[in-house]
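Limitations
The structure tokens in this dataset are predictions for the assembled complex, not deposited experimental models. Users should treat interface geometry with appropriate caution, especially where small molecules or nucleic acid strands are included. An illustrative entry is reproduced here so readers can see what is and is not provided.
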Amino acid sequence: MAKKKTIDFQALLNDVDALFPTYQALDQDGNVVDESLVPDLSDHELVELMSQMVWSRVLDQRSTALNRQGRLGFFAPTAGQEASQLASHFAFEKEDVLLPAYRDVPQLVKHGLPLYQAFLWSRGHVVGNEYDDDLQALPPQIIIGAQYVQAAGVALGLKKRGKNNVVFTYTGDGGSSQGDFYEAINFAGSYKANGVFYVQNNGFAISMPREHQTAATTIAQKAVAAGIPGIQVDGMDPFAVYTVSKLAREWAANGNGPVLIETVTYRYGAHTLSGDDPTRYRSKELDDEWQKKDPLIRFRNYLENKGLWSEEKEEEIMENARQEIKDAIAEADKVPKQKVTDFLKNMFKEQPQNIQEQIKFYEAKESK
Amino acid sequence: MAQKTMIQAITDALAVELEKDKDVLVFGEDVGLNGGVFRATADLQDKFGEEQVFDTPLAESGIMGLSFGLALEGYRAVPEIQFFGFVFEAMDEIVGQIARTRYRMGGTRNLPITLRAPFGGGVHTPELHSDNLEGMIAQAPGIRVVIPSNPYDAKGLLISSIRSNDPVVYLEHMKLYRSFREEVPDGEYEVPLDKAGIAREGNDITIVTYGAMVRESLKAAENLEKDNISAEIIDLRTVSPVDMETIIASVEKTNRVIVVQEAQKQAGVAAKISSDIAEKAILSLEAPIGRVSAPDTVFPFGQAEGIWLPNATDVEEKAREIVNF
Ligand SMILES: Cc1ncc(C[n+]2csc(CCOP(=O)(O)OP(=O)(O)O)c2C)c(N)n1
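Predicted assembly:
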């Protein structure tokens, strides 16, 4: 009798994990640990990227303060995620299409959304969502995973049009559990469409730790089922994030199909400023451990060693950012209040009867 | 007895049922350790353990499919959808699967599932958190939609829902969560499903409403009273199926009626009630059926809620119009 086959299930798991190492270029002190991942960026561009990350940190601090003063509405903190957000964005072109989630406001602003509009979005004002035609982006998405499937559509559209552009989109480690996540990477993979899909793994989906979100060791490995490349990078390392993003963009733009990138990062603040208290689910030790991996520290050290950065320079960037934010708030304050009649007029291109009636009703009400 | 907010009453109801029946399972995004984003499930995991109260991965369709499967295995599932605006992710499970399984299987299976979710405007949430989507679910046969307007009912209705062998969508208006307190008995008691309550008795006009609009209507009724207009307010409590008996009895007494909902005019519940009144009691009416609702736009941007949501003044004006018809 033939011997019964045995299967080493544990080995199956181990084999997968071995395929997904974490890409890293800079260690937490800013020393190069992998020369091959140091980006081909000019000194000027390196300084520009660092400046954007510093700007983002200031935006986070000021938004938090403005929220507490009641001068801003919804805010999802971003500090800690600067490399994940801005070094990835830095790898894309203005003509590439950005489909952001609620935490991806910094990328959106760097992609071309005027800051005062980002503030209006936060306050819940429609003018914040009125995008110029040449801004290749959608407003931040609240429904987790929804813009992922839409990105698959944009990616296919770009491919069909023969464009060398890509769509890029973000969700969180929590978002990677949504059906939409799988559907999106599977569709995009099936069509070999032009998309780069990010999962910003900041360790928590509100209170849910990453380890409970999925039994998979990495989120990058979820790409396997869709038949597309998946890569995990150190999301606190601007160089690794940038280089991997740049290569993924080229791969996708050249018609090879989509890429899934997992950035391993951390949010220092609360999930959002709408009542979340991270001390309920996170320890101070964990916070401290991640603070040491801060992307600004390692980038600053690297640039200082090259004579490209100084305290004065950083102070100047921060001061400019504060001024920019102040001006944007002032501009947002000037925008007139919303009207129900305007909402009604925006519902359809051709107004049906019920809407016409209601416009009349609310016009009368609003003119009282 | 103690004075409790609506959210405390809800937590209380969950604790009572978790204690009484070990097959009751409470789960969803952040409901465990964190106690829910509104703290509706605060401390329940501590008290009842991770077997009975647990966090799920982030996927609404998964949460409702899990509920279906657990219910089939004999558990009483009490899943939370973090905000009701996210229900679209789970619509197939709720309306396409859970609501019709009993019928499909010739009554041989029960699905005791109580989906809890916060909803409702006036608290400036971002898009898709507040939307009044009850009308959408109310259009589906096979599933109850329960909406409490006060702490006492919230507890009793939730207990009844969890004990019910049919699936229930139990919606908690965010504005009511902490806006006032009321006496709520300790321990267990039920407020029956499918039965409307009379929130205020009156003789001149019937105001049919539910959820946060009950309070707006009560305010309106006080002002109407100053002009000797006595309004009767019916709090539906279950918006699908609707207790038409109570409504018709009231309309036959007052001969005038308005239906008030926070949702858009085209969005369901008030439209259904108006047509049922027309069908069953048109000869009792001395004026047209009035409706107060939001306009037919998408739920508004946070800053604009104040001008978009119907309020006590709208109710009062509409009631006067109908009384003076
Ligand atoms: C479909 C849907 N379900 C639930 C939510 C509520 N919610 C908002 S953020 C969040 C956690 C998301 O975590 P993750 O995807 O890891 O992203 P992060 O916020 O950490 O960046 C939840 C549950 C939502 N916005 N959309």
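Some entries come with short summary sentences. For this one: Chain A has two domains: 18-336, 338-368.
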